[in-house]
Each structure stands twice: as C-alpha cells, then as structure tokens.
Amino acid sequence: MDFPPADAVTVLDGGLATELEARGHDLSDALWSARLLADDPDAIVAAHLAFFRAGAAIATTATYQASFPGFAARGLGRADAQQLLRLGVELAGAARAELAADGRRRWVAASVGPYGAALADGSEYRGRYGLTVAELTVWHRPRLEVLVDAGPDVLALETIPDADEARALVAAIAGSPVPAWLSYSIDAERTRAGQPLAEAFALLADVPEIVAVGVNCCTPADVAPAIATARAVTGKPVVVYPNSGEGWDARRGRWTGSARYSVEQAGRWVAGGATIVGGCCRVGPADIAGLARAIAGLR
C-alpha cells in the first residue's frame, strides 16, 4: 500500500509497551517490549489488535529496542536475532490480517529506535553518544536491512535525539525500497542533543526515502511549534505522537506528574497541519479511541 495516504489524516497507535504493561507483562528487561518477541509473541498481536480496534490505522512493531547486540546479550545468535526482527513485522501484519474483513486501510510501521535505546541507559533522551556518523551508520544498517526485507509498509525511525544520528539513518536507508518517516525526540525547539529543530529537519528535506517527518515521545506542549517548523522547512507530511506528558523518575523507577495528552490538543495538531497523529509512552487504546473519534468528527 502507498504510504503516507494523501487523502486523510491517519491515526497512529499509542504506546505498545504501555499496553503490554497494562496487560500484566514485566518489561523491565533491557530488551523492553522486544523481549516478548521471543517469550510471548501472542501478547504482541493482542496489543496491536487493541490499538487497531480502538481506531488506529498504523501499528508500530515491537522492534524499537531490538538490536543484534541486545539479542546477543540474551544468548541469541545472529540468525535468531534476524528471525525475531522479522517476526516483529509479521506479528503486526497478523493483527492487520485478522481485521481485514472490515475493509479498512491499515499499515505496518517497522519501529527503529535510536542507538541509545539499545544501550537501555536513557541515553536516547540525550544523544551525543560519542560515536561518529559513520559508526552509527554501520551500527544501524544491518537491522534496517532485515526489517526492510520483512516487508513493512514504512520504517518508523523514531525517538531520534540527535541530528548526527539522523544523518546516519539517512545514509543507512539510502536506496531503500521501503519509505520511512523520521521523528525526533525534542525539548522545546531543539533536539534532545541541543541542535535547533529547524536545522535538524533541514537534513531531511531533500531525502526521497523520508516521506514524513515529525516528533515523538515529547511533551504534548512541544508538538504544535514542531509541526510549524517541520512544514516550513521540509514541506513533507508531518507525523506527531507525543507521550502523555508525565515525567519519568529513573531513580525511583516510576512516572510522576499528571497526563496532559488530550483529544482537544490533537485537534489543534491536525488543524496545524499534522497528517499522522498518535501517541507514545503512557498513551493507551482508550486515548487512541478518543483521538480517532475526534479526527472522524473533523472530517
């Protein structure tokens, strides 16, 4: 299927790990939700189905934190790791196929998290890993090749904190037959690594493989200005999926503050030009159901 759809605002899913945890799964492992690719793949299908039934048209796979070094630390060889990466795409596809009779258009987005996610130390919210662009390109390319071969509709290069890592990903997907979106993790008008967001988006403006740009896993308040910047700099479709707005206390291992994700805000994001809208951490199927209803009302 062509992606992104040009005729409507498309609803993305919410936090896959959030839904898996709500269903009782312990994701404290360094592989996070990717652990269930090996341990409980049916649980992943069930979570995808929950978001699809809530009104999402795009499922992001459980491969965000999946990497060859991460799987190797669990004692899995390269062939097994490749199989699990492909399985992530297959499970989202299975959930889509289960609902195919309703005739709705749905897409599978293969999640590709940043290098920092594989470190499982929070550095995906800082960037500046101490690696060169060339080294990051070499690190990312092998799993990208596996995911592309698995046949998703789009690659979700997501939660990217650093413009240098965006450069590496652009190099790694050059010539890819599968389109991609790239979404930055931001703090106000800058990437998490501190680069001006306009400069970070400018890196993507003339990349044919990147068919949409945007932000994710940021506070909802940062979304609207980012939409304006992304549209002005790139002219590409804009994807936004912030987290709930709660804070994560890494020392205590718990969320703090109150949720600030709302359907009313999402309506303003669409009015501002976002064409793919969803949620990230702490945004569940009920939130996506409300979002889907609101977008249907806008139509």
Automatic annotation (TrEMBL):
Its cofactor is Zn(2+). This is S-methylmethionine:homocysteine methyltransferase. It comes from the Bacteria. GO terms for biological process: methionine biosynthetic process; methylation; S-methylmethionine cycle. Keywords: Metal-binding, Methyltransferase, Transferase, Zinc. PANTHER family: HOMOCYSTEINE S-METHYLTRANSFERASE-LIKE ISOFORM 1, ZGC:172121. Residues 1-295 form the Hcy-binding domain. Zn(2+) binds at residues 217, 280-281. The keyword Nucleus does not apply. The gene is mmuM. Binds 1 zinc ion per subunit. The keyword Transferase applies. GO terms for molecular function: S-adenosylmethionine-homocysteine S-methyltransferase activity; zinc ion binding. SUPFAM superfamilies: Homocysteine S-methyltransferase.
